[in-house]
Amino acid sequence: MLRWAVHLEGGPRRVNHAAVAVGHKIYSFGGYCSGEDYETLRQIDVHVFNAVSLRWMKLPPYHSERRAHSPEVPYMRYGHTAVLVDDAIYVWGGRNDTEGACNVLYAFDISSHSWTTPRVGGVIPGARDGHSACALGKSMFIFGGYEQLADCFSNDIHKLDATMMAWSLINAKGNPARWRDFHSATVIGSRMYVFGGRADRFGPFHSNNEIYCNRIKVFDTETNHWLDSPTTQLLPEGRRSHSAFTHNGQLYIFGGYNARLDRHFNDLWKYSPGEGGRGANRQMCVRKEGTMWEGGVCCCSAFCLLLVWKKPLCVLGEPPVAGAWLHAGATDVCVCVCVWVGGRCERGAGGVCGGGG
């Protein structure tokens, strides 16, 4: 059961920090607090919350054998990310007021509380802040953020293979998520669910015409396809700097800020990917009789071939249209969405036609 605890004192007061759950502990790295010094170069601080004792602890500064201020320790920053892969927490990106943005990869050993800078190769992402990062297996996926050198929002996806320590730029297919920063990206199964963030109405460059997307975009890491989430009537307000987590296969969104509304949020939303359509994963789909997996979508193998697009609905048509569901990013092609009910595949609510989000 999910429940709120009483307010706990002793922790850091920050925004745009990065936190990782490791067992019953939460490691929090850096972040921004008004009034603090972000011009003097100093080590990033690490706070640890024990979810059993409900107590905070601040780790002492790390001192290497070479010198107290070692380059393998990240400087204090905000807008960075942290993910857990095996026994290491990888901290990447972020910025401070003196050094600007960073693209050095740092590794924090959770047993020794020591820092290293792994040697990496490949297509290294440009320095940025406000991006997202999530771990899937032994890989870390970086999406979006605000790139310092290009001075613009990004919607690229970079992947770090933590086994080979090699970066790669993913050639994503489909209708991509909009350029943005300070969004969230959360993994369920083999898919990355992107929500919210700050974008610009006119493109990747910041023109002070901010918009806040409130639709979930889905990236399938198996097919490298961007997918649109099914349309729902009830949607949260668009926001940035919120938090997101998964629990029992559900996605939860909490808090955030919308500058256009000048509003801070304290609401909690739950998103259920579901079993059919674009919320399904490949393993779930292929185990069920009567379904097939095509183009990142779980479909009824026979019914999908009979659907054609007749505005504004997907309807049965003659002759059958093979592969109509493959073009999830188009606005004039029918996309089949099926659900699993009572042990068999049933047609969903007509069909869903993709669009930007």
Q: How would you characterize the overall build of this protein?
A:
This is Kelch domain containing 3. It comes from Callorhinchus milii (Ghost shark). InterPro entries: Kelch-typ_b-propeller, Kelch_1, KLHDC3-like. GO terms for molecular function: chromatin binding. The structure is a single chain. With 357 residues, the chain is mainly β. It folds into 2 domains: 18-271, Kelch-type beta propeller (Neuraminidase), CATH 2.120.10; 282-347, no CATH class. The protein has 1 helix and 34 strands. The strands form 11 sheets. Strands 5, 6, 7, 8 and 9 form a 5-stranded antiparallel β-sheet that branches. Strands 10-17-16-13-12 form a 5-stranded mixed β-sheet, with no helix packed on it. The protein has a 4-stranded antiparallel β-sheet with strand order 1-2-3-4, with no helix packed on it. It is globular, with a radius of gyration of 22 Å. The protein starts with 17 loop residues before the first strand and ends in a 10-residue tail after the last strand. 39% of the residues are buried.
